[in-house]
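SAMPLE LOG
Freezer: B-3
Tube label: C17
Construct: single chain, 949 aa
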Amino acid sequence: MPNIELKGFAFLPADTFADGPPTGQDVSGNDRTGPFEGPPVQGFSGVQFADGESFWFLSDNGFGGRNNSEDYPLRIYRVDPDFQGAEAGDGTVELLNFIQLSDPDNLIPFEIQNEGTAERLLTGGDFDPESFVIAADGTIWVGDEFGPYLLHFDATGKLLDAPFSTPNVFELNTLTGEAPIVIGHRGASGERPEHTLEAYKLAIEQGADFIEPDLVPTKDGVLVARHENAIAIINPETGEVIEATTNVADRPEFADRLTTKVIDGVEITGWFTEDFTLAELKTLKARERLPQLRSTEFDDQFEIPTLAEVIELVKQVEAETGKKIGIYPETKHPTYFDGIGLSLEEPLVETLVETEFTDPDRIFIQSFEVGNLKDLNGLLEDAGVDAPLVQLYSSATEQPYDFVVSGDTRTYGDLATPEGLAEVATYAEGIGPFKRLIIPSTTVDEDGDGQPDDLNGDGTISEADRVLGEPTSLIDDAHDAGLLVHPYTFRSEDFFLASNYGGNELQEYEDFIRLGADGYFTDFPAAGDLVRDQVTADLVRSPDNPEVRAGEAVSNLRGSGGYEGLAITPDKQTLYPLLEGSVAGDPENALRIYEFDVASSQFQGLAGYYQLENPGHNIGDFAVINENEYLVIERDNGQADAAQFKKVFKVNLSEKDADGFVAKQEVADLLNIQDPNDLNGDGSTTFDFPFVTIEDVLVIDEKTILVANDNNYPFSVGRPPEIDNNEIILLELEEALDLDPRAGLAALSRTITQGTQAGETLIGSDEADDFIFASGGNDVVAGGLGDDQLYGEDGNDVLRGDRNTSSSGGTSGGDDILYGGAGNDRLGGKGGNDQLYGGEGRDQLFGDAGDDLLRGGLGNDILVGDSPRFRGEDTFVLATGEGTDTIRDFTIGEDLIGLADGLSLGQITITQSNQNTLISAETETLAILRGVNAADLIASGEASFTAIA
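STRUCTURE (predicted):
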């Protein structure tokens, strides 16, 4: 755990109000009731430097909701903390002025709260601003949570562009790259009795692409839609009906049809479709199969439909709406029905032909058996029908029943292997596996009683008492075999959801979409369609997005899940907006870090994902350290004694794992801070920050960060009994940050020149210590006579420490630091004691006059310490893994070889090669020293080497 010390403390009292109209008309909490005399200065949700003494703090939308914040003006406040400790101040905070955000040019495409006014001042009913940065041109970029949007304002707060919506970046892992299909399993069977026209109609209305009729025959050979040929089953000992999809048990005229049969090896007592003519079946009414879980209000209202009637329904829908819905029939118990002379395959093909429903894009035919699918291939071909077939799979240990009959010992598990899938691909176009073959689930026995634990305490063991395992490779293996994958069955009731989902049925769909399922069978097509729409939507939208509120789009981001974080790169050319919530389809602990190009005002995709320590956590802010590293606040939702997790992490966008999560490292625990000087005056030498929302972090210098809370006026009580003040603290870090010269407080007083992506010439000043950053392009960069830092960055650059001349210069000049960056660069230190770092590429480094340090970096580089006229005592730095450098003017007794990155004298070998000396580490040649005698270098011993930290 990092050792953090409180170095500065200041606070702005909770009851601080700015000039402006009354606010909080509908707000009340902790003995504060609106309307308040003016806008409370609260909700600090982002911080940036204003000058060397003061800071800009972004106030959020007001009182936490869109509806209760319509009178709260959106502002950025400038405050000056008089820190106890760091400034020997009194801990007060002076409110200086503010920037009011507005849209006088009517750029916002939807109606705002102040729509009819000239100024069009923005309020918390319009946006929820939670983060901001200041660009190189002084304009302000704000991250909003309602859209979520990026908002661009000028320095006075006037909106410059229409809000930038957030693109939804997703990659589907389906076989074809297309969105998965939604299959209405027996229709919308979660809300209507299964296999009825009404269930199919509702499924289509709810967004199903295909409806699934299970097919069984009548006595007179007509195919009807029933899940089983048993339309009511009884307990033969008690006569009790234990499952029924019709009211046949209540029809005394059919009492004599009650019988016992063996279906696929299982003895069943009940009533069976093959014992009824179609006319007789049409007198029956459908019933809910799961009355213990689902509504029975539609019992005894709907008929049993034939396959032809199902097709007629689909055609009717197409005629009325233009929607081309498909059918996904399953042949039930084909071996059994073949044995009693009621084959399913022939009437199925005949019905498709007779109804002219043969479009291969609108048909899948499925079966749990294998032989009938192979037979169907021939029948379909003979009929001129090209309908894709799907092999269904039950649990891994079960067998297709035709295998049982034929003596084939293979199981569905065997058919799920790569070899088995290759065989399936010879007769089918897809597989329909039980979903637990893709994501397994198991019961647990934590109490060790030998019985499965009842995790939800309902007295029964169901899927809700099972825990998910790691996904198998079945989808990938099937795709490798060219097979589509349509798993079954997705249901919304807790009874059918693994305990991991906590009752969130939508998460299960997301998991399977992420794995690459090409479709799914669901009893609740509306849920399946919603998740598909969320994952494949063109934009990321919160519930407060205007299009969502208007019913024109679906939300795929939770409320308050928008841009809580927004960082800008040191060169001010790229924004990194960070969402606070997971987008539908992403892992629940994955927060998207977007990349946005300032110059073009366009999103550039994702920079990576921030991984929450706990899915229930939230992030608070995002602040720049350097080009790759940034700070993130992560917190739980507790306050006061309930606060358990409030931390600051350092993330590295250049280091990502296979899932795209950026590397992260704890920097500060805000609940464990040392306060030896008791800066907050509470009588303790320790300090914590136990606020529910902590939404401000800013890097002051390499060892110091500023952190502030969002006090949620008037609701939060992190230090009871009083409501929260706006506390602003300075923390000293245990480990220094690698702070970019363009970031932090010192950058405000530096002379910084920032190049562009084009090739250009950038020249510094003799009167200042210049910081010049070339950015992209092939650039010429030259400092003045000060102590300059020059950064070539991308491109093949020329860097000169002292003035822009190709000569080696004289002895005058500053002590410069030159970084070539990527590309094949040429660096010249010229006068002064300079440090030259080539970076990546085949670079040429010339120290010229002075005692210089030269490190080639990655690539085979040329290093020259001196110029023809001026000499110095130079250090040439070597490290493993950086290539072979050629050192042209090493002088024993004058220059040094620097050993970096843990390389030691004992690890290197020195050998002669013709007129040169080679320095190697194991099999890697690190350097060639031109004209140097190896024996002389060895004889000089440690005197010619130095360790480089």
